[in-house]
Amino acid sequence: MKLGAFDLPDLPDLDGIRACVHCGICLPQCPTYRVLGEEMDSPRGRIYLIRAAAEGRVGITETFTHHLDLCLGCRACETACPSGVPFGRLLEQTRGQIERHGHRRLSHRFLAGLTLGLFPYPGRLARLLAIVALYQHSGLQRLVRASGLLRLAPRLAAMEGLLPPLGSWRARELPELVQATGRRRGRAGLVLGCVQRYFFPRVNELTARLLSLAGYEVLIPRDQECCGALHLHAGRLDQARRFARGLIAAFDGGVDLVVANAAGCGSAMREYGHWLDGDPRARQFSLRVRDISELLADAELPLRPMEVTATYHDPCHLAHGQRIRREPRALLNRIPGLTLVELAESDLCCGSAGIYNLLEREMAERLLELKVSRIAETGARTVVTGNPGCVLQIARGCRERGLAVEVLHPVELLARALSY
Question: Which residue, 54, 81, 104, sits at the end of a domain?
Answer without folding.
Answer: 104
